[in-house]
Amino acid sequence: MARLTISLPDKVHSRLSAPAIKNNDSLSNTINQLIQVGLYHFFSEEGHSKETKAIENIAINLLFK
What we know:
Protein name: CopG-like ribbon-helix-helix domain-containing protein
Strand content: under 5%
Number of helices: 3
């Protein structure tokens, strides 16, 4: 798997690391999952299915909790 290095502002790092710690997961895996959801949303058609909406809601809630 290819690796990517990113720099995050402290505020964004805190928002992303909190759910990772809560779910006993790594920060890189949490970011990877969010990227996958974002790409899925980006490439999906305009008509969203119920499953897509559920995934979007989970991702949005993850960022703001």
